[in-house]
Design brief:
The protein has about 240 residues and is an alpha/beta fold. It contains nine helices and five strands; from the N terminus they run H-H-H-H-E-H-E-H-E-H-E-H-E-H. It has a five-stranded parallel sheet with strand order 2-1-3-4-5, with helices on both faces. The chain starts with 9 loop residues before the first helix and ends with a helix.
Amino acid sequence: MNTGSGGGGCCALYFRRFPVTGEDDAYEGLTPSEAFRRAKVDHFLQHVREYVDMGRYIAGLRTLDTVFGLDGGNEEGKLLKGTIDELIDHLMKRASNGKGEKPADVHPRPRRSDLVMIVDQDERLLISLTGTLRRYGFMAIGASSYEEALETYSMFRPEVVISEVNFETGPKGFDLYLWLKTNAGNQEVPFLFLATRIDRETLIAGKRFGVDDLIMKPVDDDVVIASVINCLTRKRSIQLAHK
């Protein structure tokens, strides 16, 4: 299976599974306060495992800070932290090298080093879409809010952004699009919107803003992959034409 990590030992890390603690016998012999603390640790560790699946690595590290505050020597927490640190290090090196390695034979087709960021408040959708993108050979990261998306984009510089149109609170998807195009220093980044319904106003606004594509929810994986490939191919064709 192609996990799309684009580099060495990092490939397996995207799909590494972690042992789930918290079975009934794990609390045997503990006092009520110790059992309560253990249950809290298990709860937070489960969130960290989910954050790894979503590609929300910054959120994972912050949750691990809570875990270590409760249990400084937690072994599973150390394993998870090592995995997240390695993934972040891989992505940071890629970003500092000018958005991934570029082969000598430049071609407009998408590359295995291409990174896609998904922004959506639905965590089940984040897990599903990041997993789908990895299976098709891309790298994928996630964010669940406008603020997390800004931080994640600034750190990792993905090649494509896919965002829901409306967040329940705070700035909207169009705000993220405008920030990206005006402040991120890269107006060529393809931007795709996810929408539960695309009414006339949303469609017109998207066209006026120059959004690359609008994808309906519930999401069809094949539609998403086709849209990502098409956007990347078009972007690279334009770049080659200007060389």
